[in-house]
Specification:
Elements lengths: L1 H25 L9 H22 L4 E6 L5 H9 L5 E3 L8 E15 L6 E15 L5 E15 L3 H4 L18 H26 L2
Parallel strand pairs: 1-2, 1-3
Antiparallel strand pairs: 3-4, 4-5
């Protein structure tokens, strides 16, 4: 009878250790967030609406728009030309005013998430400036900016970035080791191995 209880106790401890190991692997699991392109597309839409509102507030109903060089200019331009508040023209045709847009920053970045080595903080940001060339003096608007932050799993980055769009990719901070990485996981592996050996010797000595 005592041997039966010993075997049962060993099995319970063994499965408890395994359960702890697998639970810690999934405790922070979350659904896959929106990809980086969608995140930046949302920022571009917000920036385009802001540009349109600024022009509208100055009684500008239509404007020729031109962009300074940036890999993601086409995305912002697409959102701006879709605006229904101001008629943006892709060809000047001698029309004034014109709007020059400098895309200063339009990117995704990753930052360490303190205390969670397998997670990262993701930040999407857009910063642009405008020069509105009206019939009088140019109007300079130095910064229009929007930012989005969320938290992602390191393992999700492969599914969040797009190889065809360089602005959806960013350097990944190096993996920081935690107390669990250094001591917790090795301890569980050793404990599981010891319990397995104890169980085998107990069964063999029956």
């Amino acid at each position: 009878m005592p041997l039966y209880f010993i075997k049962k106790a060993v099995l319970l401890v063994f499965f408890a250790v395994l359960g702890c190991f697998f639970c810690t692997s999934y405790i922070f699991a979350q659904p896959t967030p929106q990809n980086n392109f969608s995140l930046l597309e949302a920022l571009a839409s917000r920036a385009a609406d802001s540009v349109a509102l600024l022009l509208k507030s100055r009684n500008i109903e239509r404007s020729f728009v031109q962009f300074q060089s940036h890999p993601a200019n086409w995305l912002l331009k697409e959102k701006i030309l879709q605006s229904n508040m101001v008629r943006f023209l892709s060809d000047t045709n001698g029309i004034r005013p014109s709007t020059e847009i400098l895309l200063k920053d339009f990117a995704v970045r990753y930052f360490p998430y303190p205390g969670e080595a397998d997670s990262l903080m993701r930040e999407g940001q857009i910063i642009l400036s405008l020069i509105i060339n009206s019939n009088t003096a140019p109007i300079v608007i130095p910064n229009i900016s929007f930012k989005i932050r969320d938290f992602i799993a390191r393992n999700d980055i492969l599914f969040l970035e797009e190889s065809q769009h360089s602005f959806t990719r960013a350097p990944v901070p190096p993996h920081e080791t935690t107390f669990w990485d250094e001591y917790g996981e090795p301890f569980l592996f050793i404990a599981a191995a010891v319990i397995t050996l104890a169980l085998l010797f107990t069964v063999r000595s029956q």
